[in-house]
Design goal:
This protein is an alpha/beta fold. The protein has one domain: 3-Layer(aba) Sandwich (Rossmann fold). It is built from 9 helices and 5 strands. Helix 6 crosses helix 7. The two termini are 18 Å apart.
Length: 184
């Protein structure tokens, strides 16, 4: 089975949905940011603080290029993983990429006053989020599918993803074999 890769901005539900999806499909789950934290022995916020964003992005790029399984896994990336075309290409090569989206208001509500989001340390979080979303929009649009999670619970998003994968398997018989689903 191909990997199912969740991309999207922070607060769109990649980690929570990924865990639900992995449980429903009985597959392992990898949160790329947590994997990087384990490898580096420090939080993403601490990596940004101590070494800067460019250093973090290089680790992320290397992890996507060489450190992910080739299949049978649900993967949640960090919100900025799509900043490099190479990352998108590598993620798509080994999986179906699904972008989770949400409105600025929903993102703010979900992340609350969380202080471990280094890119949001700005006086006006809503303005900062809107700017980052605009800068990343073209990259997020490169995903195979997009789902607006603003009004959906993680279990509903997971069910939507399963339906998309099953539909793809029915439309493209070889995809069915790749995803482990049989045709109806």
């Amino acid at each position: 089975m191909k990997n199912i890769v969740l991309v999207g901005f922070m607060g769109t539900g990649k980690t929570t949905t990924g865990m639900v999806l992995a449980e429903k499909l009985n597959l392992p789950f990898i949160d790329l940011d947590r994997k990087i934290e384990t490898e580096c022995g420090m939080t993403v916020a601490d990596i940004f603080k101590k070494h800067g964003e460019a250093f973090f992005r290089q680790i992320e790029k290397s992890m996507i290029r060489e450190g992910l399984p080739s299949g049978d896994t649900i993967i949640a990336t960090g919100g900025g993983a799509v900043l490099f075309a190479e990352n998108i290409s590598n993620l798509k090569r080994h999986g179906t990429v699904i972008c989770l989206q949400a409105s600025v208001d929903v993102i703010i509500k979900r992340i609350g006053h969380c202080t471990d989001r280094p890119l949001l340390n700005a006086p006006d979080r809503a303005e900062r989020i809107a700017k980052l979303l605009q800068e990343r929009a073209a990259r997020y649009q490169m995903a195979d599918y997009s789902i607006d999670t603003s009004a959906l619970a993680p279990a509903e998003v997971a069910e939507t993803i399963i339906a998309l994968v099953q539909e793809e398997a029915a439309r493209f018989p070889m995809a069915g074999a790749v995803y482990g689903y049989s045709q109806p």
